[in-house]
Amino acid sequence: MSKHPPVTAPTSIEQGLLAQGYRLIAGIDEVGRGCWAGPVVAAAVIFDRGVLNDPRVLEGVTDSKLLTAQQRRTLAPGIMALAIAWAVGSVPAWLVDQLGIVGATRLAMEQAVLSLNCMPDVLLLDALTLPTLPQPQVALIKGDRASLSIAAASIIAKTARDRYMLTFDRHYPHRFGQHKGYGTALHQLALAEHGLTPLHRRSFRPLWAMSTGASYGAND
C-alpha cells in the first residue's frame, strides 16, 4: 500500500443534495461486518457547506480500506475538527449473534445518527438503508469511495473500532490488536491455542462449530 493517501473522495453527491435544499447531510458507514470477534462499529459525520464546497481541506479522505492505520489516525482528528457533528455507534458480538449481522449493522448506524448533536436532513449510506429513521436516504454501492461524507465516516468508524480491539488485546491473549478480530491465520492459531472469548461471534459458522463441537470443513 502506498505511503501517500489515495485520491480524495468526491463531493458531487453532496453538491447535488445541497442544490436540492438539503443542509445537514450525514455520511454513514460501518466497519467490522466480516469479523469473527469484536463489535460492529458505525459512524455518522456531517460537514458544513464550506467544507463540501472546498474538499481540499480534507485531502486524502477516502475509503478507510485504502488507507494505512497511520494514515487513518492522521486524518481522523481533522475530520472531527471540521465536522459540524460526528458520532459513533457500536453493537457487541453477543447482540450480533441475536440480531444477525445486517440487523446489528443497521442498529450501529442508527445509534450513530441518533447520537449526533444535530439531526441531519438527509442520510448518505454505504449500501444499506435504515427503515426506522424518517430522513430521506441515499444508499450508494461503494459509497465510501463515491462520497466524502461517507468516506469520513468510514475513517472515524475504523479508528474507533481499532481502539476497541487494542483495549481487548490487554485482556485476552488472542492478539486482537494485530488481527482486529478478522478471521486471519493468526486469529485461527490463537483460537486453537486459547479457545473462544465473550468477544467472539458464535453465530458465525467457524465459531459456531467450535462452540458446539460440530465439524466444520472447507466444503461445509
Let me know the CATH homologous superfamily. Ribonuclease H-like superfamily/Ribonuclease H
- From the alpha-carbon coordinates, what is the Rg to the nearest angstrom? 18 Å
Characterize the biggest β-sheet.
Answer: 5 strands, mixed
Instruction: Give the strand content.
Output: 15-25%
Unreliable segments (pLDDT under 50, ≥5 consecutive)?
214-220
Secondary structure: number of strands: 5
Do you know the CATH topology? Nucleotidyltransferase, domain 5
The CATH class designation is Alpha Beta
Which range best describes the helical content: under 10%, 10-25%, 25-40%, 40-55%, 55-70% or over 70%?
A: 40-55%
List the domain count as a whole number.
1
Q: Which strand order does the major sheet show? A: 3-2-1-4-5
| Shape-level CATH architecture | 2-Layer Sandwich
Q: Termini distance?
A: 34 Å
Shape: globular
Explain how this protein is built.
The structure is a single chain. This protein has one domain (12-169): Nucleotidyltransferase, domain 5, CATH 3.30.420.10. It has nine helices and five strands, in the order H-E-E-H-H-E-H-E-E-H-H-H-H-H. The protein has helices at residues 12-19, 49-53, 69-82, 93-114, 143-146, 148-169, 176-179, 185-194, 205-212, and strands spanning 25-31, 40-47, 83-91, 122-126, 137-140. The chain has a five-stranded mixed beta sheet. Strand 1 (25-31) and strand 2 form a beta hairpin. Helix 3 crosses helix 6. Mean pLDDT is 92; it is low at 214-220.
Task: Explain the layout of strands and helices.
Layout: H1 12-19, E1 25-31, E2 40-47, H2 49-53, H3 69-82, E3 83-91, H4 93-114, E4 122-126, E5 137-140, H5 143-146, H6 148-169, H7 176-179, H8 185-194, H9 205-212
Parallel strand pairs: 1-4, 4-5
Antiparallel strand pairs: 1-2, 2-3
Helix pairs in contact: 3-6
